[in-house]
Structures are given as C-alpha cells and as structure tokens.
Amino acid sequence: MDLFFFLKTIAVSQLLSLLKFKNYMIIEIGQLAPDFSLTDTNKQTVTLSGLKGQNVVLLFFPFAFTSTCTAELCGVRDDISQYQNLNAKVFGISIDSVFTLIRYKEEQNLNFDLLCDFNKEAGTVYKVLYESFAFGMKGVAKRSAFVVDTNGVIQYAEVLENANELPNIEAIKATLKGLN
Question: Which residues, at least 6 apart from 120, have a Cβ–Cβ distance to it below 8 Å?
Fold first, then answer.
C-alpha cells in the first residue's frame, strides 16, 4: 500500500468518525425515517410515526412565496391525484412560521398540508439545513425530497445543494409506484 493511499484512508476514516460523532450522517435509503412532530396549516400536530400505514412524501423547501418553491409546490398541487392514487400523503416542510405557511397555502390553493419547522427540528434530523444561505441566513432548509413507505422506512432520498433546482418528481412517482 502506498503512503498516499494510506493517508487518504485514514483521513476518510477520521472524517466519517467525526461525522458520526456529530450526528451528521446523511439519511439513506433503507433506514428508518427519523420521527418528527410539526404543526400543520390547520394548526394541528403531525407526527411522522402517526402516519405509519401510508406512504409519505416529504418535500423540504427553503421559503414560501419564492419562485422556485412556488413552482415546485404548485406542480405537486396540480398532480395531487397521482400521489393519492399511489397511496401517498404529501407534506411540504419549511422553516417559515405557521402563519406564513397558512397564507401561502391559501394564496397558492395548495391541496396538501404544509408543516412548520420553525425550530428546525425536522431539518436537523433529516440533515437538510444550509449552514449559510443567501443574505447570511443560517439553517434554511435545502430543497429535498424523501419517500417514506408504510413501515416508516426511507425509500427515496434527494437533497439538493442548489436551491434553484427541483427534485426529480418522476423518480419520486416511480418509487411510489414500486411500493404499491
């Protein structure tokens, strides 16, 4: 084994240990979905574990009332029957306040619930928060998509670094089709 390979192996091993220690491991397909309890736009608490028996699509998005987020969520709104036909319940999740999300849902005529992650609890356990976002904001949700099956297991995971990109909706639907 050459010295470069040895040093590289040690560095990767130390980095992985550090990431595990700090609880920064990426959410992976096949693992149990981290549970959360968040307030929805009906001011009710939604707990992921309470949705067992249903397929769930979690769409983390940076902010309500922004162009890319609106395009993404309105696209889901327009296709909601496809998700329902695939036995899936869709939730949008943002760090916006519940009051902002209520207004946003009303103005965009969204036909699925938005969840308030103002305290960044779900974003933290799903590892989808930017350390630094535009204008010096910290802890904003990265645009991300997760499919959780009826047993609470992650079947699809996509975390985008570029907030202007959209998740692969066709891959999400294909994953859901494979679960039915």
Answer: 95, 129, 139
